[in-house]
Amino acid sequence: MKKKLHALLLFALVLFSHALWAQTKTITGTVTDVSDGSAIPGVNVFVKGTSSGTSTDLDGKYSLSVPEDAIVVYSFIGYTTQEVSVAGKSTINVALVQDSEELGEVVVTALGISKEKEKLGYSVTEVGSETLNKARETNVANSLAGRVAGLVVKGTNSGPGGTAKITLRGLPSISGTGSPLYVINGIPMDNSQRGAATQWGGGDNGDGIGNLSPDDIETMTVLKGQSASALYGSRASNGVILITTKKGKKGSDWSLNYTMNFMAEQAVDFTDFQNEYGQGTGGIKPTTADDAKTTGRLAWGARMDGSQVIGFNGDQYTYSPASENYIDFYETGTNLTNTVSVSKGFAEGSFRLSLSNLNANSIVPKSGIKRNTINLNVEQNLTDKLNVSAMINYIDQQSDNIPFLSDGPKNPNNFLLLAPNINPSIYAPGYNPDTGAETVFSDDIYVTNPYFIVNQGENDLGRRRTISALSAKYNFTNKIYAMLRLGNDVSNDKFFSVDPYGLAYSADLKGNLNSRGQSERSELNLEAIFGATVDLTEDIELDAVLGANKRNNKFETVGVGGSRFVLPYLYSPFNVETFSRSYDYNEREVNSAYYSLGFAYKDFLTLTTTGRYDVYSTLPLDNNNIFSPSVSMAFIFSQFLNVSALDFGKLRASYAVTSGEPFDAYQSKFYYTSANSYNGVPAGSSPTALPNLSLKPFTTDEVEFGLDLSFFKGRLSFDVAYFNKTTHDEIMNANLSVTSGFTSAVVATGSTSNKGLELLVSGSPIVTPTFSWTSSFNFTNVKNEVLSTDDNNNPVNLGQNRATLGNAVTAYVVGESGPQIRAYDYAYDGNGDIMVDASGLPVRGELKSYGSVLPTVYGGWNNEFRFKQVNFAFLIDYNFGNKVLSATEFYSHFRGLHKNTLVGREDGVTTNGVTADAQSYYQALVQNVTSTSVVDGDFIKLRQVTLGYTFPDKWFANTPVLGGMNVSLVGRNLAILMRKADNIDPEASFGSNINYTGIEGTSLPSTRSFGFNLNFKLD
């Protein structure tokens, strides 16, 4: 009887289960983030009250069989859980809202270690890949402009591949370049500049960060303060920028992405020169071909009247405003980037491989760069405790005909100062096709015809670079690990530069082989780390890291050159009349040990202390080591307040010391070099710089206080920081009297101070399922001061431009902000009136300081709007409080182009009853009173605009290959909304280090860019 009953119950259960199954259905949908509409992978989707469920894929999509009356739960960490009733629906799309109480943002910090941002005692700012990829810069560091409080980015006006100058929190160290340390996946990379222009000319050969492809970067994290960067020791005194590259995700399916970016770049004319008086001198237009050639860059002629005037070649031209100007010499530059990446996740590992090609044509004809990049990231769990990861980034870059800047020789921007009646095209092709001789267009053969240099010039640089990292991590437990990390950064450069055959200033027009050779630069880092997280008590947690690092840097270069080519256009070292050779070598090493001990009490108070011990090979044995400590604290006070609007509040404070070595090696001993033989006898040369036998590491200490606030469920947040940073014992060069036997000496007496306030306000004023607006505004105010220089606290000159050579400079001046522009004022009599000589020409007065080249107030305002599949964003940045030493201001006055020179053209300029002709007056004015070349550097710019559309997923539901597509229109450097300087872009610069910051002069014109992005996701 019992058996029959059991059988009956079993039969009933089967029927009941079948009935339930018959009442189920399959639902599908997509889970997105309500703030930006992006898909959320890994969301838990399950039927409430059961264990039946699934998770969303990489596109946020899911499919699940559910009963007709089921309630479906959508749950994901950091988001508010949602419940939705099926109620007959077959498609359910859900937009999840971030939960500020649950969401603990994780950021990458020093040594590549991820930590919860809310527990950090210092300021960290992260910039994501989407920001870096849309409106492309060939140097990815330029994309940070206006986005990070405390950070200033200044590119050089040198075309694609130019250096990006970044300063963090004011004046950098006197002895360094000012550039922060770049770290890729925990491994420091070499960011050396490969060549820079000075007042004597030269080309900007780029830096290290400019070699990287933006498509391979996941995030760039800026560590501004000394506490944030203290564990990196040497080179970290100017801050650290951590770069995390894109990787595959464990457990993910195959993913194939194709991205295409195209940008068109146009030169912008900021000049507003006079257009009334034309070519000539003394109020007279040229009357002979020789006069026309020597006055091509002088606009002191007669008023233009439409009559005929002789030209440099004997032909007649109309004496009226030209239909072209110097901008018409330039072409539309184009940047085309194509990137393909493939990634795959496995149960115990992942990989990502990308191939990227950049073809960038400069606005300068026949100039540009080509770059091919291969990036591979691999990660694998060899056992349940041992994880191994590897990265290889290979770059092959070729730069063709890199432009020369600043001075006149071989500079393609020399048409900037043409008289207003001259069309530049009359000087094409720039040379005599029969003889090859340059067509000289002015009174100075050293001011090269731009057409000549673009058609005949050779200034090429090829670079093959490999950045590799290998890491092995062994987890003894889930809280105790050991890591061994090896990084190697090797660059091999080939360089080739000539003075072309026919160049006017070369001997007998035969040209010269300036250099042909190659160099190798390498940085090797070997690092061992032991880390552990231990619960000391129920309330106190200890996070400890111990590590050691060995860094080795090498540089070696060899080249050949020669003077006067024998056969035309055969640019070989075997085709010169005199032969030369060059060789240079530099090596240095740093051995370090460090620790970090972090204590957390009940998740509201953290205290972290670090220490680093460095031993430098570049310093004497008695002074070659130093210990650098730091301590930081974070107190989350919001846990003790019952304020409904306040989600999060944190006070933070820190103190840190970082150290540094000399920028150049071999400064602590005498080193003799070989010289040319004399009468067949080998000779040597002694140094002209007096070495310092007692050099020691310089230090930078900083105190920082900060406040973090978040309101209204994360809709409004504030990040405020105050810092006070001082450098000590900075290593620098000091000038000596030549009677001492030396011209300079290495001293360690420099000191600078930076104090400032940083503010970041961000929020989401509007968030709905279909529309959102997010906005952020950052503000920085910095005051810096030079505390000491050499033993006598003399001003230390840094840079100058060719126009005011020796009469206006930038310098470190004790008691003033730096670098300070120093120039000559007017001379004044006892009544305070401007003095002139007997001819009515201005007299030179005192040498004075006119302001720092670094801004005191700067920042940016970023906005992004999303409506369904459409997104629109713009960035405005601003810069106030700095001065610019402008060569354009000098030359435009000297050559009669500036509108100021219209005053007195007919009747002369009268001062104190004495009259001088206009040409003599204005030329004497800018030569004697060089302060007239100092202009304000203030500006507000519309830096970037993007408009994009993401095609709906349903469009691709039935396509076998295409899984998604996004297209966007982009613009970069679109407009200057406010500026005080006439005739120049206040950011224009030819130099690529702190010595030439704030100095303008005959670089390439600034540009604005327009383009579009196209991104395909392939299934």
TrEMBL record:
It holds the Pfam family CarbopepD_reg_2. It comes from the Bacteria. Residues 1-22 form the signal peptide. Residues 117-240 form the TonB-dependent receptor plug domain. Keywords: Cell outer membrane, Membrane, Signal, Transmembrane, Transmembrane beta strand, Transport. The keyword Signal applies. It is found in: Cell outer membrane. It is a multi-pass membrane protein. InterPro entries: Beta-barrel_TonB_sf (IPR036942), CarboxyPept-like_regulatory (IPR008969), Plug_dom (IPR012910), Plug_dom_sf (IPR037066), TonB-dep_OMP_SusC/RagA (IPR023996), TonB-dep_OMP_SusC/RagA_CS (IPR023997), TonB-dep_rcpt-like (IPR039426). Belongs to the TonB-dependent receptor family. This is SusC/RagA family TonB-linked outer membrane protein.
